[in-house]
Design brief:
149 residues, alpha+beta, Alpha-Beta Plaits, six-stranded antiparallel β-sheet, two-stranded antiparallel sheet, 4 helices, 8 strands
């Protein structure tokens, strides 16, 4: 953790995905809004295109990316901030693993392990998803190596 003006900044890794509308614009818009909130984005992976995993048949391919940032927000407040960003970008509630304009997941928050009905950190399925691991490995290769060992 870093100390900044008396506040603790947590290092956080995010996964972003979109398979509706202008997918790249959706991801870039999410990153821009994250930067305008209490999240300081430090690194962003390249955007990759992947096939949908799970959910209904016939979905469009996804664009996915990973980002590293810092925040003073608690995990719960960070989740509410991300859900607000998704909503402002036009995301509506839909099918689990279904198509979406934008999806922003908290993959890792410092070294915390959290399991509540609304939030699980580390993200419970990230190690099984190449669309998460590939961009995350680009920005944090040592972290991914540790996670997989």
């Amino acid at each position: 953790m870093f100390i900044c003006k008396g506040s603790v900044l947590a290092i956080v890794y995010f996964g972003l995905g979109s398979n509706l509308g202008d997918r790249k614009k959706n991801i870039l818009g999410a990153l821009a809004r994250m930067r305008q909130s209490a999240i300081r984005i430090q690194k962003v992976s390249h955007v990759i295109e992947t096939k949908p995993v799970g959910g209904p048949k016939g979905q469009n391919d996804y664009l996915n990316a990973a980002a590293k940032g810092t925040t003073e927000l608690t995990p719960g407040k960070l989740l509410r901030t991300l859900k607000s960003i998704e909503k402002k970008l036009g995301r509506k509630k839909g099918l689990r693993y279904g198509p979406r304009l934008i999806d922003i997941d908290i993959l890792i928050y410092e070294n915390k392990w959290i399991k509540t009905p609304k939030l699980t950190i580390p993200h419970p399925r990230m190690l099984k998803r190449e669309f998460v691991l590939k961009p995350l490995k680009e920005i944090a290769p040592k972290l991914v190596k540790e996670l997989l060992s």
